[in-house]
Amino acid sequence: MPRIGVLFDFDGTLTLPGALDFPAIKEALGCPRDQLILEFVESQPPDRRAMLMEILEQREAEAARASLPNRGAEKCLLTLKERGIPVGILTRNSLRSVKEALNRFTKIALDDFAAVVTRDTSLPKPHPEGVRRVADQMGLLPSQLLMVGDFRFDIIAGKRAGAITVLLTNGGGSVMIQGDPEPDYTIRHLEELPGLLSRLGVSGLDRGGPLVSACPVS
Length: 218
Fold this sequence. Notes:
The chain has a seven-stranded parallel sheet with strand order 3-2-1-4-5-6-7. With 218 residues, the chain is α/β, with parallel strands linked by helices. It has two domains: 5-17 and 68-216, Rossmann fold, CATH 3.40.50; 22-66, no CATH class. Strand 4, helix 7 and strand 5 (164-168) form a beta-alpha-beta unit. The protein has helices at residues 22-29, 37-42, 46-66, 73-82, 95-102, 129-138, 152-161, 193-200; strands at 5-8, 87-90, 115-117, 145-149, 164-168, 185-187, 215-216.
């Protein structure tokens, strides 16, 4: 197996989708429905920004306490650990919320991850900075990372950084929209990821560049 790392989004990827009620959070913040929450908060005057961040973090903490591991998440992570493949987290959420949500995992803890990059330490996705930070912390090139996530920003950030991208649909359809880059691979559930990695082990993943042809996993 080539030397690679796997970078996971957190909410809706490692955790079960639905814990974060984005419409309700936007309503509480006064954020227009067509705007992104973090970007809306950042655009506000400093005093108001601090107040909005307090509200946001409270809502995120509530969601973290109510969250559950996603289907197959712990088994997938344990399998990668057994194979010696480093794993990381890249999220638009806060480190505080990640720690709280990981308390709901029974076999996985924060120190099982080689890198955890949150909005506290990086520009949020779809900016590629976080992907590059994780690669640096793992001692890898971005092209040696698989970026796995359930949202279009995960794929965009991964592509911009030069990583291989894996879209997790959680059994649904694609979330990509017109003009977005296509994910390199698509999986329905995290149980499929170790099998995908086994297939990539003989597909030249260690030659230094991302694979560019999509290969849906059924």
